[in-house]
Amino acid sequence: AKSLNLPTDLLHLMGCSNADGKQALARQFWLASALQGNPLAQYSLAEDIMVTEQAYEEQSLRVLAATLFSLAAQQGNERAADAVLKVMDVEVSQLSIGTEEEFRNSPVVQVVEEALGQL
Question: CB neighbours of 97 closer than 8 A, spacing ≥ 6?
Answer without folding.
Answer: 91, 103, 106
